[in-house]
Design goal:
The protein has helices at residues 9-22, 220-246; strands at 5-6, 26-32, 35-46, 50-55, 67-74, 77-91, 94-100, 106-109, 116-117, 125-130, 146-153, 157-163, 175-180, 189-200, 206-213. The longest helix has 27 residues, at 220-246. The protein is α+β, with helices and mostly antiparallel strands.
Length: 247
């Protein structure tokens, strides 16, 4: 079963030091005016009280004491924690962000971020809606929300299919709220996301949308949702393995 594991406090500095040496990719997530933003970071230093990152772009939206979620890609794992901004220092076209040292770092196997197909005998409907429509467009849709069919799921996102006549309302980069019930006996999952993939299918009847989940590492509540997703992925994996053995 895929699970999150809390890293022992004695390992935390070593993980951050290795990430700095390896120049590991780091994603920071934070909210601006009620919407999630993502920033590409790298670890550049730290001590027992704080950890510093370089941001590859300007950070005018980040303020002192602002909550930030961090996801470090290192080896076969991703390391997640949340903190608050200690200081932001401009450095030419990029900036340096100092965060308070986290109380806890959690580790997730990277295989959890590989897409797991929805089992063949399971149909999962997804409801989704715009988190702010295209500001520059006057073609505001009449629908409040849309429905589709979930195709796969990972700890990082999902992909679903809709009828092709709705394709004009979606594009890469849009923010979407989504809700789906992974198994019939479970409670629905409600997540925020942004569109990473949007493509018409060869049958000229369907349109597929792939989204990345936002903010799951940025708060204890988000990581509880991530725990649920990891449980679902493990269940899907078990069902798919049994079906493959039968066939």
């Amino acid at each position: 079963m895929i699970q999150k594991k809390t890293v022992d406090i004695s390992e935390m500095k070593g993980i951050l030091s290795e990430s700095q040496q390896e120049n590991s990719p780091v994603i920071g997530s934070f909210m601006v005016n009620g919407k999630w933003r993502l920033a590409e970071l790298t670890v550049c230093g730290g001590c027992s009280d704080f950890v510093d990152f370089y941001c590859q772009s300007a950070c005018e939206d980040l303020k002192k004491d602002q909550p930030v979620g961090i996801c470090i890609h290192l080896g076969h794992f991703k390391y997640l924690f949340d903190s608050t901004v200690r200081a932001v220092e401009p450095d030419g076209t990029r900036c340096q962000i100092s965060l308070h040292f986290p109380d806890k770092i959690e580790r997730v196997e990277r295989r959890a971020y590989h897409r797991q197909p929805i089992p063949a005998n399971t149909k999962v409907k997804v409801i989704f809606w715009h988190r702010g429509y295209l500001d520059e467009s006057e073609n505001t849709p009449g629908e409040v929300y849309w429905q589709g069919t979930l195709l796969n799921l990972s700890a990082g996102g999902t992909r679903f299919e809709i009828e092709i006549e709705h394709k004009e309302h979606f594009r890469i980069g849009q923010l979407l709220g989504i809700q789906f019930t992974p198994m019939s006996y479970q409670k629905p999952l409600l997540l925020e996301s942004h569109v990473k993939y949007a493509e018409e299918q060869s049958d000229n009847r369907h349109f597929r949308i792939g989204v990345e989940f936002l903010g799951l590492e940025a708060s204890p509540e988000g990581r509880q949702i991530l725990d649920r997703i990891l449980e679902v992925i493990s269940e899907y994996e078990t069902i798919n393995t049994k079906e493959n053995i039968k066939s």
